[in-house]
Amino acid sequence: MSPLFLYTATLYLFLLPSSWAQPLYSPESCIPSDEFGSYCPTTCGVADYLNRYKPAVDKYLDDFEDLLEQIGNLTKGAQDKVVYMRDSASHGQKSTPPADFYFRRSSTMLDDILQFEKSIVAQEANIYELQQLLVSNDKRMLQARQLSLQLERQCKTSCQDTIQIHSTTGKDCQDVANKGAKTSGLYFIKPLKAKEQFLVYCEIDSFGSGWTVLQRRRDGSINFSKEWIQYREGFGYLSPDDTSEFWLGNEKIHLLSTQSSIPYVLRIELTDWEGHKKHADYAMFRVGPEADQYRLTYAYYYGGEAGDAFSGFDFGDDPSDKFFTSHNGMQFSTSDRDNDKYQGNCAQQDGSGWWMNRCHAAHLNGKYYQGGKYTAKDAGEQFDNGIIWATWHSRWYSLKETSMKIIPMNRMTTGGGQQAGVKLHF
Ligand SMILES: *[C@@H]1O[C@H](CO)[C@@H](O)[C@H](O)[C@H]1NC(C)=O
Ligand SMILES: *[C@@H]1O[C@H](CO)[C@@H](O)[C@H](O)[C@H]1NC(C)=O
Ligand SMILES: [Ca+2]
Questions:
Q1: How do 235-236 and 210-217 pair as beta strands?
Q2: Which of 219, 305, 363, 365 could make an SS bond with 388 (beta carbons 3.0 to 4.6 A apart)?
Q3: How far, in Å, from the CA of 59 to the mean position of ligand 1?
Q4: Percent of the chain with pLDDT over 70
Q5: What is the pLDDT at residue 232?
Q6: Is 272 within 8 Å of 372 (Cβ atoms)?
Q7: What range does the record give for the signal peptide (predicted)?
Q8: Is any ligand 1 atom within 6 A of the Cβ of residue 73?
Q9: Mean of the pLDDT values across residues 14-24?
Q10: Who contacts 95 (Cβ-Cβ below 8 Å, separation ≥6)?
């Protein structure tokens, strides 16, 4: 018997201990126990399990035994062969065959070895490539795992409002700047007669000027076709980096502009689609209370390259054009509240809220037209309903960006404030 067979036979004996003759656990020895946990089997379950699978395991072992015997037989055959070859080799040595025979044999063996080496080299290259692939896959998997960890962490932290609202407050943005605020952004302000503070965007420059922004158009993202209540309360979004569109609200504009003996200057800033910027300033800007339909008044045009469209424009259609397109002294109109000087409803025709006359030469809450130029056909009903400043561009040209902002008038006239302010913005 070969040593291998001896070994396997021993193994076989170990695999069949006598205890396998009977069930490992009898049903009586079951210990139902909670310790195993609700989803783990009890010892009874373990016994049942072993009893159920024992016949199949026995069969496997029988088959295994057969296989081992076969291997044993084969090993024995191989051993016999080795013995036979050794005998014939020693016999061959004794008979000394011709050198030529050995040479040929060894040269074919060399060929085989060379072939073998070549295939080993090729295999090694393959293995190397696969290893590289494995490494890069590992790296990618690591990255993916890190990403998923990051995402998991992000998902665990609840949604937080990360918008920064500055802590300085005041009755307007100039007050905020006077109290030391140095950067533009969102601030709460509370005009003197306001019941509650409210949020505004303050544009604060390095000269200490603090503009309170009332209106912003940038990209057409907000629909300005709204009704009275929305224009009264305000709509759109205030953003800490001045990237969004909004109307602050007529009530807030009223409270701001009428709160003190120091009158305000309204600055209108305009950008066209060619990137040119112009502005127009109005002294003593005021918006009346709701009881007076948020009437707009100002004392005079203070200056600016955009021209004085607020005071009307002579379109050349009629001698009264300028008079009927002036906005000074006009009440605010919306589609649902007609306070204009026209037999029709300007705000409804133009889909906006504004200090309509009959109807306008300045119209900053108009419809947003990408690219600027539009026609009566684009407007749907032949009304010029774009974002218009007639003293700069025609009424069939809708401006790209606008803003309306106010500052106390003394900032424009004292301490070189006027120069500073004008220089900084344009
Ligand atoms: C192994 O060899 C013995 C004796 O030579 C024989 O009786 C037996 O059947 C063989 N077993 C197998 C599985 O071939
Ligand atoms: C803007 O709102 C008005 C009124 O709700 C609506 O009729 C109009 O289609 C809207 N315009 C756009 C561009 O969404
Ligand atoms: Ca009317």
A1: unpaired
A2: 363
A3: 20
A4: 78
A5: 96
A6: yes
A7: 1-21
A8: yes
A9: 41
A10: none
